[in-house]
Amino acid sequence: MILYLLTLVLLVFIAPILLSYIKAVKMVLLFKRPISLMQGYRNFSKLLTKETIISKESSAITHYAPFLVLSPLLVTMFFLPPVVEGAYYVSFVDAFTITGLISLSTFFLMLLGLDSASAFGGMGSSREAFISALVEPAMVLTIFSVSLMADNLGVGQAGVNLAQHFPKEHMASYLFAGISFFILLIAENGRIPVDNPETHLELTMVHEAMILDLSGVYLAIIESASSIKFVIFASLFASLFMPFGLEFSAPIAFVIFILKLFIIATFVALLEVNTAKLRLFKIPNLLGLSIVFAFLSLITFYVLGA
Amino acid sequence: MVDFLIGLFLASLIVALFTTRLYRLLLWYSLNSLTLGLLALTIGSNIDDDGMLVTGVITILIKAVGIPYILKNLSQKFHFVRQITPEIKVQYAIMLVPAILVFTFYLSEPIVNMIHTNANYVAISISSLFLSLLLMMEHSNVAPKIIGFLTLENSLFLLGITATNGMPMLVELGIFFDLLMAIVVINLLFHKEEMKV
């Protein structure tokens, strides 16, 4: 139980560091002086002391929605596969539950965008709805095919099974699922080929457009929600697609897990530096590719068993 | 390991189907050939076939490095159209690619029943054969059609090394020279086109 709680605390605290780390890697590669890894915490504490201003047109939803964006993600964190052997985990939560909780959070984020009654908010919400509608089927298919390979529909149990018995005989379908999930990781967190988290240009905004009217504490909550979403996806990727290092003693296993998270973040940063942002109507091509790979993974597993 | 490489082979082919830039397509072709070469090396060392090791090294040298380099030079020389949009729209391709895969996986079931070793690999190489046919079909420019032809050859090669546990080395070398001849002929065709203009 203590290890379980320790994992949760670790995930919450490492979330802002990971996003700052991605930014720092990008800045190093662009020959700028990198920001410190603590920048996420600094922004958070700065936003907490600022005044919270809410637009006159907005209704009560603006007061509730930031918490409702954060809470499904926090609940999802309880269902993630264990990091250390012997840690407590929830074994019965399947692909639908995790996808549903994440899309519940996205739903309230879209409501928040609509509620501000500005043109930007509605535009951002419609774009986010467009992207997340394409993400969900691929995510359900991918997690299902991985859980089938691990012989258990529960995600937590699947992570444990994969660590104990690496699916060598299903390597082909495992690879397809991995490619599909990495595309989803990028799309759902609004990283560069899909959405640029750093600009406030009207052409490129998806996530930023919805939270443009927020300030102060609410903005801090939404920012931490987006960093927690990244850490959820990264740790799902780490425990489902890099299932090793679980069998060591607790401190070493934690270090290995953190290293895995940083490796994933490095890959995301390298991809961000090397690609341009896609046009909005090209995004279905990328997500369609992810759906094709997810389906292919399931079909290869069923028909060929490879 | 072989499963992983064969998955990478199919994955690079599927990504190539959705590409809209010529140089990116050459990169995917190069990756495809690289996995093919590594596959030949792995299977060759598994079954102790020196001929297949030589073939693997030649595959990596010629197909993964040589042919993409030559094609890139050619495309710069003759000013190919570098933006290649597939004729089949992406939303249809998303339906078509899984349909082809399911169809070929079931199609190859009788063959799979006859072969006892590496049965899955035969099914995957037949499906990649169909996918490279689709790659040839969906483009109207000549350069991606050439890539489609080359990937067709790659998947035939994959079928050869997985289904038969290695063809005689003479046959494989013959195929390589065939391929080189095809590149030379393609080069001549471009020169002729250039003369007309």
Describe the 3D structure.
- The complex is a heterodimer of chains A (306) and B (197).
- Chain A has 306 residues and is an all-alpha fold.
- In chain A, 70% of the residues lie in helices and 0% in strands.
- The mean pLDDT of chain A is 89.
- In chain A, helix 3 packs antiparallel against helix 4 and helix 7 packs antiparallel against helix 9.
- Chain B has one domain.
- Helix content of chain B is 82%, strand content 0%.
Rounded to an integer, what's the Rg of chain B over CA atoms? Answer: 17 Å
Distance between the termini of chain A: 37 Å
Class from helix and strand fractions of chain A: mainly alpha
Q: How many strands in all of chain A?
A: 0
Percent range for helical residues of chain B? over 70%
User: What kind of sheet is the major sheet of chain B?
Assistant: none
What is the number of helices of chain A? Answer: 11
The overall pLDDT of chain B, averaged over residues, is 84
Percent of residues in beta strands of chain A: under 5%
Query: Order of helices and strands of chain B, N to C?
Result: HHHHHHHH
State the total count of DSSP E strands of chain B. 0
The parts of chain B where pLDDT drops under 50 for at least 5 residues are none
Helix content of chain A: 55-70%
